[in-house]
Amino acid sequence: MEVFASISVIILSSVGLAIISSEILKIHNLDRKKIIHSPGAITKISFIVVIITLLIIPTALPGAASWISGIKAPPTILNGGTNFNIATDDWPAAMEWLKNNTPEDAVVASWWDYGYWITTLGERISLADNATLSTIQIQKIALMFLSSPDRGWELLQELGADYVLVYVASVRIDEEGGSALYLLQGGADESKKQWFMRIAGEPVSRYVEADGLSGTAYFWDNTLLGKMFPYSLLAYADFNANLQSETYQPGFTPIYEKDIKYQSDGDGPLRLVYSSSSFDRETSGPISGVFIYEVNMDYVPNQVTSPTTEITESSETAVISTSFGDITIELKENVAPKTVENFKNLANSGFYDGTIFHRILPDFVIQGGDPNTISGSRDTWGQGGPGHSIDAEFSDIKHKKYIVSMARGGDINSAGSQFFIVLENSPWLDGKYTVFGEVTSGKDIVDKIASLETNSQDQPIDQKTAIIEKIVIIS
């Protein structure tokens, strides 16, 4: 749309400029009945100066981003959209390999920036691209990258992915002794990872240092994305002061060395099956690294069972009365005692009475418990709470269908009053949200609420149909 609109603007501007120029620059005209005077010399000169100035400014400003420097930049497919002013065949070659060496029905997981290339050049199915409207799908991908390797592998199974692609832009710098060292943060996934965290609803500080870019030890050691980057942190350096540190220091630059964690013949959750040719360069310079991993379908995640996850019969239930009928929830005080106590106190005080299920996402969740839905405007729904928060109480209970869990913000300890009921198995939520109950009856009522008509913000159009009349705790 922008392209067609710009063509129209250019044509109309040209016509307008031609009319104005002809009027200002016309010469004296002697009519039989009257003399027509054209603008004076000063006006003409001023007009010419203004036009020339308007033509010159875009060529000079802004300094490094004028249209002249812009047209000199290589096509995005040749530099991957990185900060490097280079043109390589790393992306075209990777897509050619993908097309010729993977099954025609293969599904490729990657960040959505690369989905279009995977589909059109690689001729393979991509999980997300620039046209993906489902924020849930993109959130799932972000959560997969930020999960532990075992959890990430499980999410890849849930997503139906056969391959995973990551893109890393780095620069090789050679030490005097001949060792190859690398700098990251060239504008690829290593520089975008903080957006993965924001979209996934994860605390950025867990994965990124104070500079907003350098990965923490947790990121490198505990996330699937950190394991997929074929580098490991070596040290931090201050090149100006010639100083070095083993830990992060403000103003220091992280230095990396090559380290492929998932080899092609390994038995881990992924196997590296393709890497860009520039990754093997033997001289200093930029690297536009496309890395394709095959999902190891035979991988068996480590099964670690927490003693807190043994589910026993609860002596208490919560009954949510709605316009469609009652929903009964078994409260799991044995795995989330503080959360259950908070929920019971709010219910007994009448806090939930008159609130609504304000967020309805079919095949995902219905969410309620926000006091703003009683009297606040729709743009405030989802932002309210009881005025306090409770700490997370994670267990390894799975977010399967009809599980009840606490909603929260970016801080894992920011839950208050809002809760959600899961509509389909959602393993990417496991270990990230506090499970405190499960629907034991009224599942058809949950499904009816989930089928309500919603607006573009996933809010029920008729809020009366989604109202929570009251919540009663039964011992």
Element layout with pairings:
Blueprint: H1 2-24, E1 29-30, E2 35-36, H2 41-60, H3 67-72, H4 76-79, H5 90-101, E3 107-109, H6 115-120, E4 125-126, H7 135-146, H8 149-159, E5 163-174, E6 180-183, H9 189-200, H10 204-207, H11 217-222, H12 224-228, E7 231-238, E8 243-245, E9 253-258, E10 270-275, E11 285-295, E12 317-322, E13 326-331, H13 337-348, E14 357-361, E15 365-368, H14 372-375, E16 403-406, E17 419-422, E18 435-441, H15 443-450, E19 468-474
Parallel strand pairs: 3-4, 3-5
Antiparallel strand pairs: 1-2, 5-6, 5-11, 7-8, 7-9, 10-11, 12-13, 12-19, 13-18, 14-15, 15-17, 16-17, 16-18
Helix pairs in contact: 7-8, 7-9
Describe the structure.
- The structure is a single chain.
- The chain is globular.
- The chain has about 475 residues and is an alpha+beta fold.
- Strands 14-15-17-16-18-13-12-19 form an eight-stranded antiparallel beta sheet.
- Helix 7 runs antiparallel to helix 8 and helix 7 (about 135-145) packs across helix 9.
- Strand 7 and strand 8 (about 245) form a beta hairpin.
- The termini are far apart.
- The protein has helices at about 1-25, 40-60, 65-70, 75-80, 90-100, 115-120, 135-145, 150-160, 190-200, 205, 215-220, 225-230, 335-350, 370-375, 445-450, and strands at about 30, 35, 105-110, 125, 165-175, 180-185, 230-240, 245, 255-260, 270-275, 285-295, 315-320, 325-330, 355-360, 365-370, 405, 420, 435-440, 470-475.
- It has three domains: about 1-70, no CATH class; about 75-295, Rossmann fold (3-Layer(aba) Sandwich), CATH 3.40.50.12610; about 305-475, Cyclophilin-like (Cyclophilin, Beta Barrel), CATH 2.40.100.10.
